Amino acid sequence: MSTVRCTMAQALVRYLCNQFVEIDGQRVPLFAGVFGIFGHGNVTCLSEALEAVQDQLPTWRGQNEQSMALAAVGFAKAKRRRQAMIAATSIGPGAINMVTAAGTAMANRLPVLLLAGDTFANRLPDPVLQQVEHFNDPTVTVNDSFKPVVRYWDRITHPEQIITSLPQALATMLDPADCGPVFIGLAQDTQEKAFDYPEAFFEPKVWSIPRPRPDRRAVEEAVAVLRTAKKPLIISGGGVRYAIAENEVAAFAQKRGIPVVETIAGKGALTHDHPVHAGPIGIVGSTSANALAAEADVILAIGTRLQDFTTGSWTAFSKDAKFISINTARWDAIKHRAVAVVGDALETVTELDAALGDFAMPASYMAKAKGLFDEWNALLDQHQAPTDAAIPSYAQVIGVLNKVARPNDTLIGAAGGTPGEITKGWRVKNPNTFDCEFGFSCMGYEIAAGWGCAMAQDGPGATGGTPIVMLGDGTYMMMNSDIYSAVLTGHKMIVVVCDNGGYAVINRLQQFKGVPGFNNLLKDCRIQNPENPLHVDFVKHAESMGAYARKCESLEELEEAMEWAQSNDRTTLLTIVSDAYAWVPGDADWDVGVPEVSAHESVRKAREAHDVIRSKQRVGV
To answer: What residue stretches are annotated with the Thiamine pyrophosphate enzyme central domain (predicted)?
Structure first.
């Protein structure tokens, strides 16, 4: 057997360079690149291996370990899980900074390869710099903190272990059912060790993403239930987008006369004006989708994990409604006593369609759904139209951005007031141009994801547009350094900061549940001058990182500035003061903890109202 002698770090990198995937008929590297921050746990061995292949596997320098891993998450979303990035860091705080990003990838079922240095396998230098010590277990390091937030975890303490570990790690990343982040810890002394690796280990491999077909009996059961429907509804989730099944789902819905509503992760599978589209569903959804959900007797949930923001904490549906759940993950498919059809969305919908015969709803049912959607669009028009108000709302800002956005531009949001407003108000022009990270609602995702999304605009499967990142001032302050990254690397995005003076949407929830405004808006915080809080000059801040920037005093100025930003050759930031109290209405409930006893009468009243919400919940698992 022919062998190749190299260090473990060199072997790992060589293996990763020889992994490929087919996208739209083209063979491309499975890993498009590496985000890296080097420290004493990876700079001498892993960086030596990466430096040698930098033209084949480019390494991009991050500013923060969390944000560079979030950029990898944004890249994976933009590539619809068909291509991935690597995030590499040292031991200690560098590694543990990536845990938040791992949780974001885990909640959203997205592939990211996380590589972190580790302590010495031989323990001779212990305790090393940045090592935490557990007195009862010397094997524990900070890298164990990744275990709850990754699909696959390993620590390499012998160089030959990667021969079995790496194929398992990559198979996990590409499995539609188990897809998620992978973590591999690299002991410092193991990285340096040489080993005679089998030459076959480095042979190029082209991975294919499987499309598991459903069990025939499950399809038959689903058909039987669907045939009983008088008011069926399709919920299209993120799995539809990742299965590249949007055309099949839309054709199925149109043929059968069933309206389609979208989850937050699923938004963007259909264009806003598609004939079967009836709006986003749930807590940050549309009146049209929620009205249809309330009356639906059979719900066909495709590629969704039925998160509380989709189901209104399970108050959005009749307690007698029946669910059919199509999902590659058995865990998701069996939720709430659903008829579980475990399989790929495209393959399963195709088989379901073939088995349904001439089943279709009367045209009047779709007409009713479109009527409700027309009413919703009229409501959006009303809220997005300019007014004489001194301070514009999120909805008005979104209306301007949506007007100027090019069809292939991708809107990105994640936390604060943005997700609700863009999920409701953004009218998708082309498929796969919307990314609202709300599985983890990770503050700080937005700008980092914009950098990753911009990187994903080349090659097969790319939309070719410009990322438009929308976020609030609170989120901007949490993580903004990848404006500098994008300028450095030449990956353009447009960042729009809505400055509403703090954490406005959580202030809304706080007060809605009876608690006086406290520690959310700047004026309600323990600060030196609450009557006139210091506001950050976002324009100067962005310009200091090399971006173009402009402050907008009105919606007219914002529209002009967006046109200017579109014409620029580099990352551009726009900021506008926004209303902290004006929101587009939604009518789905949400279950959050409300105190059973309180000195505030407003809280006691909110608790009474909340008990009514809980009385509407479906009982399920």
So the answer is: 219-352
